[in-house]
Amino acid sequence: MIKIAVMGYGIIGSGVVQVIETNQDSICKKIGEGVEVKYILDLRDFEGSPVQDKVVHDYKIIAQDPEISIVVESMGGVEPAYTFVNAMLEAGKSVTTSNKALVAVHGSKLIAAAKAHNVNFMFEASVGGGIPIIRALNSCLTADRIEEINGIVNGTTNYMMTRMAEDGCSFEEALKDAQDKGFAEKDPTADIEGHDAGRKIAILTSLIAGQQVDFEDIYTEGISKITAADILYAKKMGRVIKLLAASRQTGDTYTVMVAPFLLSREHPLYTVNGVFNAVFVRGNMLGDAMFYGSGAGSLPTASAVVADVVELAKHIGKHIELVWEPEKLEIADYKKQPARFFVRTQADRAAAENVFGTVEYVEVPEISGETGFVTGLLTEEDFEQKAAALGIIQRIRFH
């Protein structure tokens, strides 16, 4: 019997225990023996709960117990999660986590610590919830050079954009609905301003580049400025607005960005709606592939965590090589990259053409007193200069 510990008994931690109990027979067949949760680390006691006897309040109890070979971290945040996880690795215990904040900041250090102590650090559930994108990048796609990743990796914002597109909701109405349904936090800033997606694309880019990508370096723009008028223009163009986490190979580095994009009907991510997530990958040999599924929630995320537990159980005493060096990767300057932009302005057509040259106009009968158009291809830097000269209401990038 393999004995494990779960640090943090919230939504994800309790889900992990539930998945293990529900699917114990299946897990046992895959590993060759069963999995038992011996400890649950939490500040609370859970009196009267079936897990009451497993609860401990000191992480050192877990670290010092030789029976524990695998630890699940589901506390969230960077500290004390980093201190606890590092202690487990140094004690010779493999760790899996769903904590994107921890992985984005300290992933390379924890991988190095795992290697030094001949154990493993896995984090499948830190990006895309139940979607197996990290294992795919680390195992299935290792023969490819990944040239591009585009992902809808935040269920809250995707749900909101779907509601705005399909039901005509305002941003404020869509946010309230998401909060009422439990899809958005009371403080939704990390989701709606793109910070959550930024951490996730930092993790994915670090893996495909093999070097540390700091999420603070990534240009990040959320959906809080998207309006019902923008949705009407998008429909007129036969497009949808999605918050994308995007990474594209640029020379010997990557251009990385989080922002709303206008997607055409032909794009694989066009039909990804509601709280679902999807990650589109382009490899130099594979070509295009897409990974789609439940991106959040207790059980989908917990399923990915337990999949890591199974993998870790199969490799006790053997380190799985994972390339993510601590040396920082200098990502490309997004302002030097070309793009097309949809623009809304109060200026007339003559002024628009005087500044931007030849453009494609978009007319929406319900909207008056402004001009909507699509630019030709130009760099972000050039666009900013022209936009300042013209004066604009809104701009959204084409993809």
Q: How would you characterize the overall build of this protein?
A:
- There is one protein chain.
- 37% of the residues lie in helices and 26% in strands.
- The N and C termini lie far apart (50 Å).
- It has 14 helices and 20 strands.
- The mean pLDDT is 95.
- Strands 7, 9, 10, 11, 12, 13, 16, 17, 18 and 20 form a ten-stranded mixed sheet that branches. Strands 3-2-1-4-5-6 form a six-stranded parallel sheet, sandwiched between helices.
- The protein is α/β, with parallel strands linked by helices.
How is the biggest beta sheet arranged? 10 strands, mixed
Query: Residue ranges: pLDDT <50 for 5 or more in a row?
Result: none
Give the class from helix and strand content and strand pairing. Answer: alpha/beta
**How large is the radius of gyration?**
23 Å
State the end-to-end distance.
50 Å
Oligomer type: single chain
Dominant shape: elongated
State mean pLDDT (0 to 100 scale): 95
